[in-house]
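In this section we walk through a basic example: taking a raw amino acid sequence and producing a predicted 3D structure, encoded as discrete structure tokens. The instruction is simple. Fold the sequence below.
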Amino acid sequence: MRKTPAITMGWLGIFRLGLVQAAIGAVVVITTSTLNRVLVVELALPAMLPGVLVALHYFVQVLRPRLGYGSDVGGRRTPWIIGGMAVLGLGALGAALSTALMVSNLWLGIACAVVAFLFVGLGVGACGTTMLVLLSKTVVKEKLAAAATVTWVMMIVGFIVTTVIAGKMLDPFSLTRLVEVTASVAAGAFLLTCLAVYGIERPLIANAAGAAGASTPTAPTTDFMTALREVWAEPHSRRLASFVFVSMLAYSAQDLVLEPFAGAVFGMTPGESTQLSGMMSGGTLIGMLLVALICTVGARGRMGALRLWTIGGCVASALMLVTLAVAGFVGPAWPLKPTVFLLGLANGAYAVAAIGSMMGLVGRGRESREGTRMGLWGAAQAIAFGIGGIAATGAVDLARALTGSLPAAYGSVFVAEAALFVVATAFAVRLSREDTQSSVQVDLQGVSATYVAEAGRG
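The resulting token sequence is shown next.
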């Protein structure tokens, strides 16, 4: 049963932490999108190079539990948020400098880019993990879905604002201008983060100090590996990590497959397939906003249960992916755009409910393990994203070689993704049952305590 935070965060505080997520999105989009295009188009390098670099920044986030544990030890989250953003900004600047270096010394530039993308992954892991922990510890249950939506939407806002402004600043293009623009974005993101978190943790520190009768919170005395084993031994932590990995593997695998599918099977032009991808993103955003609104307004009712939307979103996503597989065999006569929009809607409902559930469960279990616990789940998500795109595109090539049919190749991948969502649903159902049993036990304990107290008075 999730404890009600002693110090609760209002909408202004949620929005301030959302600005941190926007800052993360602003820097990440430069490294994973803009530099991707420059390496492939302007420098005419193999597309595999940026693909490996982006995957590397995901895989290094396996260190998220260790980073979260570091914030548990210190008892404060804001230094890790600010420090993580500093590392992220340095990594992005290093990636831009490495790209410029590749013109004169290709291999040295690639080596420097590897180090830079490791910094990017470490920065995202440190900043993102501790930001979510701070949000989770201060937001009441009724606002979890809304808080999760705010952080996700703000990240998308960071993507959009950066691409618009940086896009104008980059023309006329030169590698020198690329470095300058990247440095400006990184510096702006760091400044925004510092302003967003300034003083936000002060009430928590004061409350913890007052409760402990000391000036600083009590830090955990166990080492990291012991703390990680303790978190992994918690059934809900282990099952949620498995759920996050499987569901995010299915979720991320769609990104690199949808547009090629639309072009190869439905004959869409690049502009049309891009619009289709935008329609799916729009559906995702609407799904998130709807779930956040329903869970906030109807928090006390059944429709406000995050676990219900997590399960329903997974099931709906699986159904829509199977529908896409069928659409490939029907061809252009199939209403592809509504199908993709509904897939985005289901994805949005699942995603925001899953993030809200993570935030709601981060405080369950042993004390002073919130950062380690959130880090474990964040690592599962990052690894899934790193594997998802590579696995999906490789599976399409393999299925095409075996079947010789484009609809069969893409359809088999969509069905496999649907199967992953079904497995994720099983994990979500199990977690829901455990959550219900825990709530009942807490209620029974409360009734027993009341009965004992009344009997004592009698």
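Looking at the output, two observations stand out. Residues 214-219, 439-458 have pLDDT under 50 and may be disordered. The chain has 16 helices and no strands. In the next section we compare this with other chains.
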